[in-house]
Amino acid sequence: MDVRCARFFISDRGKPSFWEKALQMTRRKKIYEGKAKILYEGPEPGTLIQYFKDDTTAFDATKKAVLEGKGVINNRISEYVMTRLNSIGVQNHFIKRLNLREQLIREVEIIPLEVVCRNIAAGSLSTRLGLPEGQALPRSIIEFFLKDDKLHDPMVTEEHITAFNWASTQEIDDIMALTLRVNDFLTGMFGAVGITLVDFKIEFGRIWENDFGRVILADEISPDSCRLWDSVTNEKLDKDRFRRDLGDVIESYTEVARRLGIMKEMPTVIQGGLH
Ligand code: TMP
Ligand code: ASP
Question: Is 3-106 CATH 3.30.200.20?
Fold first, then answer.
């Protein structure tokens, strides 16, 4: 991997540049701050600005680091993936990218579930069921986790989801159908550039139209939220490099962007400003 490539994405030392900081300080109202992103009030009702931080956490934020430039790369990869998904009819909250770290999104009512889809055993599935990492699953498996850090995002079933009104039966059906479409599309998209989509996590939100709620894809899709392995070597190109102290995290994320062909479109950022 070419470390110099990463420099295309980030400022001199990878930190937000003077102009990025200035832009942030004149920013509108902060609506919510999560571990890796901040949501600001958008320019119009029903819109928000999603800001991608360099902060990286694992294991309920017990492990933390600032990986310089990560937010810039994830903003760009997520833009690319959401745009491609939109083009095949998977509606999502992405409207447009505004700058290196921000995108304009549609405001949604977040459904408090992390929806995980797996093609190959890895991570918590391997631990839970004693499956060797890398074992192909008989079919794609969808799991639901409640978004609640205090409870360590426990796994929940459709029974819990409907009983506690986190989502309706119809919404669960829609979520599962959309998740499988996302999986099929992303498996092909990454496969075409020599990357195996092992698993991923997505989130959904509700939008309201004439009193009818509908679920659309929200949040982000990036190497933070997917397991991506090189198809030939099985080398990890995702956040497991951070979780497992494998090093070269930014280089791996950059490699994903490069293979997707995003790299060449990135503006270069050099000391003091955007070019
Ligand atoms: P897991 O094997 O740890 O349950 O992770 C499954 C997928 O979900 C993997 O692609 C990483 C992603 N993920 C997140 O995006 N956020 C999280 O908090 C966790 C635990 C996993
Ligand atoms: N969401 C996790 C955290 O709590 C990060 C992860 O493992 O992806 O920090």
Answer: yes
